[in-house]
Design goal:
The complex is a heterodimer. Chain A is of the alpha/beta class. Chain A is built from 16 helices and 16 strands. In chain A, a hairpin with a 4-residue loop joins strand 9 (275-277) and strand 10 (282-285). Chain B is an alpha+beta fold. Chain B has 13 helices and 27 strands. The chains are: A alpha/beta, B alpha+beta. Chain A: Pathway: Glycolipid biosynthesis; glycosylphosphatidylinositol-anchor biosynthesis.
Chain lengths: 570, 628
Amino acid sequence: MAVDSDPIAANDKTRRMVILSVWAVVLLGLPLWWKTTRVYRAELPYESIDQWNQWKTCQPKFPIRVNLHLSETKQQSGNNPSMSDVTQGVIRRVQELNTVHGGKESLLAVEFIAGKPWTGSVDKDIIDHTSTVPGTYDFYISPSNATHASIRSQRQGFIQVQSWNTDHIIDTIVETSGVVFGSEEMTLHQLLDTNEDTQGVLKVQDQLKTVKYAPGYQLTFSLFSGDASNGVREWKMQEAIHAYLAPFIKTMSTVSKFTIESQIQHYASLAFTPQMDYGSQEHYLTPDALPNFINAAEWSLASTVSSLPSLNFLTYVPKPSESPLVIKTGPGASKSSTNSFLIPRWGGVAILNRDTDRTKNAKEHPEVITVQDLEPVMRVFLTQLRDLMGITDLSTTARSSSSFPIVFHKSLNEAPTTWELDNLLRRRSAENLVDSLATISSLARLVRDTPNMVVLDHIQKDVTEALRDIGRSCEHLSRQEYVEALAASRDGLVKSETAFFDPTMVSMLYFPDEHKYAIYMPLFVPISVPLLMSLLREVKRFKEKKQAQKDKNKASQGHEYHDIKHDKQE
Amino acid sequence: MRASSPCLLLLSGAVLTLLAAATTITDTIPILKAPEAFHEQLVLKPLNDGSVYSHFQFTTHIGTMMDDDHFDGAASNLFKHYNLFPRSIGQILHSFEVEELHLTFTQGRWQYSDWGYPLAPSAGTGVELWAWLNNDKRQIDEHWKGLTNTLSGLFCASLNFIDDTITTEPKLSFRNEGLYNTHSAPYISTHNDNNSTIPRKLRYGSLPHENVCTENLTPWIKLLPCKSKAGIASLLKSHKLFDTRFYSMAVHVRSVCEDEKCRVRSLELVQTITAVFDVARHDGSFDWSISSLFERQITQSCPLASTSKVIVNLPQTTEIENQYSLVPYPLQGIYSEGSGDKKQEVAVYDLKETFAETTTPFQLALHWEGSRPKSVRAITPGIVAHRYFTGFGQERGGLAIEIRNHDSQDIEAVFLDTLPWYLKLYLHTFSIQLNGKTLDNQRDLVQKMFYQPAVDRSRPAVLEMALKLPADSLVKFTVSFDKVFLKYTEHRPDANRGFDVGYAVLTAQLPREQGQIGYGGLDHLRIYQEREAGLVQGRRGGNSNQDKEKEGQEGVTDKIRVYTDTLLVSLPTPDFSMPYNVITMTCTVISLFFGSVFNLMMRNFEVVKPASSSKKNGSGKGKAEKTE
């Protein structure tokens, strides 16, 4: 009988080997299957995204250089203030002010430099010596009988001080620079604020009107004529654009380019009937009705081909039955002087009432809207365009806070001045940085939260490149290269948005893991049942055997054969 | 006026010869500005089977100051400031460098043998798009793709499905109809037909399966300066328009010359809607009026339109006079074209004049005596073409094309057939039968032949032939093909419906015959537009001797296109649940196999000795006994 025990043991061994090897194949195969059927996910640089969000990698700084020029005019009463004294004084005062404001590091790093003295009269040399570098300005200080500052359009400021002594000069310079750069400092602070609580609210208020930054915009000027029976056939928009808009477009070209189109839509009636004020014989629109003004379904405003963001400027000529049409709160209330309104991030609307009594004007072509007719409308559109572009009018923000008059010179036809343009460059760069970082971090969050999402290599590439562009922009900023910084931040924004809106990011969301399991169910379930059963049985047998071993050790030698035989019969 | 009208109407051919205006333009003036203008027209014609054919035509001209020397400056401004010309079309033309654009949406089948030829040049069921694009920068394929996608968005249609597998470039058909465009290089001259220096290219695509409905009409109406709020377009009510036997809607953009030397040119946008109303459907009466057809009225002419006319091609009655009455009778009287058997009377209503006098809506009705015509002249279209599949089964089939020439003279025609790549044509099986007899010498009939073999999944097969159709003949082409077994994902969602195979197009120069609507095409209506007073006056006065000669000749021809029916081919269709079945089946088989093999390996087999089996209560049921 001892011969029998050997094949049985050998059988056991083979069986165990079989189970083991099959399980080994299964265990090795599972990860392989998992890997081959898994969605592809390229790794995003989460860590550096998080660091960027806290501005740990690079804190954006906006250096500003102000050259101070003192007048050479000698005062009879002895001590003439020296250039170095004034400059040192100003620098010291600014530092003191900063520490007073809780030591918060200011984003606009204004640096004062002692410049060349000047004659004191605004002559050709001065006019020619204008700074062409954004962020570098010249302050010309001269004595006068009243303290007064005038900010010229060409990056120049002329400060006239009443008493010609160092302290007063320092005071005046510090105050002027505070007025000129103060509001911008605030805006930038709000923009770049990483504090989650305050971030949203302030941004919404500030950026509500301003259209999102783009390297190019499509401006569409549309004449909407309520009814062709009002006699309007033609408008001289082409000429009006040339007359009023050209300087603006030219100056803005460092920030954004514009393409301009105009169209006329006849028979473009309002979707509702305006109310009638019988007292003044006027039809009027209340501010509540203005959101419904644009008849989007009927008026063809969208561009069929252009991929640039478009801004629409509508001139609405009401039909005779609605004419004259004004905007006011109710009957008897005073009407809007411009008869126009701005639609945030979309464009502007101006209502142009035609003179109903045409015989009085005795116009040669009553069906043509001339450039003169368009002038008030174009002025309104220019103001609206400035608002939409986010150009901050320095004179309005500065008026209240200074102790002496500060005059801001304007350029022709509302074109942005160099001060406003520099301001815009800085703010747009900051906005782009914040926007692209926000896009990237929400992309990162989305990818982290959606495990089924496919992330292809080019997304990863776009994200890293966007981060690199952001870094580049930040470096340019710190080197006072504002135009380059804007270009880099724009690249970053474009790349981050390409990554975010990539079509491959959504496609595979429809193939969740459940789908995969369902397909392989007919394979896995029938295979796993015998596998598991055999494994369990084997474990059970192993235990029994162990038990038997123990029993055997306890029991006498003589029972051994009997036990085995007994086993066999089972 | 009346006496001279026949020759005027004969004047306008497919190729425009604007002669009279030549005198008004002197050589010293380099630039002339053509006025921006809009014209609206409605042509109505009662058909012999009781249907009423209606054709709306809206023509918008964009003013251009074109001259060979002043070309670019004008072009850059042309597409920036829009007035009557729709901006959406202008932008498309500009950004994709389109020189000529023809887009037609059609529903229903045009019955050539009953109705003659339509005024609208395209009548194939579905959508047809063809364009001449400037290929200066070798970007034509991108531009064509952009064009189809943009038009698809503009007209809410599936035009974006016109991809490489559908697009063709016909060699003989669909020649450009305009003379120049802002994007073309300065055009040499009108009488020089050598176009080889102009790098423009044709792209043609059609979608036979596309349905046309209100969502396509709405954007179409938006292109009109007066929308559907005033003028003739106020008749466009989609409920009535789509309840017709045939409906076709088109946008054609091309450039035209305003003077003989083509100094002044303008870009012309022609929008047409063609509908055949089934008047007799309800009560068998052939009477109709504008309000019964459209359920709307014209209350005013479009104030922006230079001309606004309703034109009625009166029925051609024979034998009995005064079978019908037209109410109101036109103020200008009735023009007649042709003479004798071919006489066609035309009533023209000028809405501008009508509404200058009155503000009551424009009414127009035609009453037959006894509600039905007693005798009318039958329509015999010169060329009719049919196409059908032969053969059976899902493996192979055949295609037969029948072209019947009813004319008494030989006619030159170009035949174009585009077949999708999943029908594999065998050109060696191509045969021609003339009047039932197989032709051995095909050269007499087929003068030129272009064949582009299909490439799987990338381009269709194109068969194009220049034919000379003998007089009074029936020509039949046959060719056989194999049907391809498509991939699982290549089938449409409604796979068992089959695949639509688009129409074949026959382009022919037909001798002009009066009384059939289609002769003369869209240009025919230009004489009613009075675009330039001098020009039209000249034509009306018939002061051109050349044209009088032409009238006398029989040789005046019109270019027409005849569309065959669209076909439905059923390809071998798989069972679409198969992939899942296969996966499940395979998995089950593998797991069963694995289970049994695994079980076999888990078990011990040992030989049971018969000697010992007798000991164990005779349990010798098999040679082997299972052990666990």
